[in-house]
Amino acid sequence: MARLNVSPTRMELGRLKKRLSVARNGHKLLKDKRDELMKQFMSLIRKNKELRVKAEAALAETQKDFLICGAMLSEESLDAALSMPSRSVSAEVTYKNLTGVTVPEFEYTITSGSSDPLCYGFNDTNSALDRAVGSMDSVMDLLLELAKTEKAARLLSCEIEKTRRRVNALEYVMIPQLEETIKYINMKMEENERSTKIRLMKVKDMVLEKKQTGG
Amino acid sequence: MAYSVAAIGDKESLLSFRSAGIRAYECSTRGGALKALKSAQEDCAVIYVTDEIYEMLSEEISFFDDKPLPAIIPFPGMKGSGVGMRLLNKSVETAVGSNILQE
């Protein structure tokens, strides 16, 4: 591992030690965050998968119903029948904080002009269309629930990836680099100390020798 | 603020959504879908897209992956291609590193 390009001084050593302790602390915290996110993600994604399988199956059934209606009715009358739906769906969004990730929560309100989901005259439509429209009700609940969990799961997965990168960068790059540099500075300073000591000893020897020959 | 819910796709796939009172954008080309997405994202919290359109616009849609809104959810239209499941597996892979949900 490459060491940082710093001058081996006592000042730098103190600074690096502080950075190392911050990095270790951050690493620990991020690791905890990652584990917690993962825990939440796993339960969400299981629910998401279940919902998706259910919603897709239910939707396929309804689509089939509508296809049959489309085959029986003329295009114009089907178009006219569905052109003014009696209901409209709107979503109220609140935000929830899941371990630091902002996740939207949708609260759906279905405003309907009348209690009857059928929004067309019975003159040129048939009962198959009534059935299809009625079955869409339960599918809608599934689809709206699916939107909520799927968005949350996707946001969490993005966040987990980001956190994992940070954890790995700290663990495998930042911390070893700092440790290596601290070790290098320590060694360099010890070396300096030894060389000063040797120099002093040499000077002392020289001074003694001079005294003996001179005196 | 109350947001709407929209669906983008081909005409047949949208029939069911229209009956439930969801705003429907009919389109079949990439350009049309892009236009629909642009106008839907402004005031919609949830946008349902057919698998086909999702694949067509996957690049543009991935832009919204890490934004809280809107939630763009693929659904199999008349010609479903299983994008939803693939997407689910992909997000497991990004999060965990390998797909652990696969049987």
Topology at a glance:
The complex is a heterodimer of chains A (215) and B (103).
Chain A: H1 10-72, H2 75-82, E1 87-98, E2 101-112, H3 127-214
Antiparallel strand pairs in A: 1-2
Chain B: E1 2-9, H1 11-19, E2 23-26, H2 30-41, E3 44-50, H3 51-56, H4 58-62, E4 71-75, H5 83-96
Parallel strand pairs in B: 1-2, 1-3, 3-4
Protein model, in words:
The two termini of chain A are 57 Å apart. Chain A has a two-stranded antiparallel ribbon. By secondary structure, chain A is mostly helical. In chain A, strand 1 (87-98) and strand 2 form a beta hairpin. Chain A has a domain at 25-161: Helix Hairpins, CATH 1.10.287. In chain A, helix 1 (10-72) runs antiparallel to helix 3 (127-214). Chain A contains 3 helices and 2 strands, in the order H-H-E-E-H. By secondary structure, chain B is an alpha/beta fold. Chain B has one domain: Rossmann fold, CATH 3.40.50.10580. In chain B, helix 1 links the parallel strand 1 (2-9) and strand 2. Chains A and B meet through helix 1, strand 1, strand 2 and helix 3 of A and strand 1, helix 1, strand 3, strand 4 and helix 5 of B.
Mean pLDDT of chain B: 82
* pLDDT < 50 runs, ≥5 residues of chain B: none
> Which fold does the CATH topology of chain B refer to?
Rossmann fold
Order of helices and strands of chain A: HHEEH
Distance between the termini of chain B: 42 Å
What oligomeric assembly is this protein in? heterodimer
Order of strands side by side in the largest beta sheet of chain B?
2-1-3-4
Overall shape of chain A: it is rod-shaped
Helix content of chain A: over 70%
Helicity of chain B, as a percent range: 40-55%
Strand content of chain A: 5-15%
- What's the average pLDDT of chain A? 85
* CATH homolog superfamily of chain B: ATPase, V1 complex, subunit F
Largest beta sheet: strand ordering of chain A: 1-2
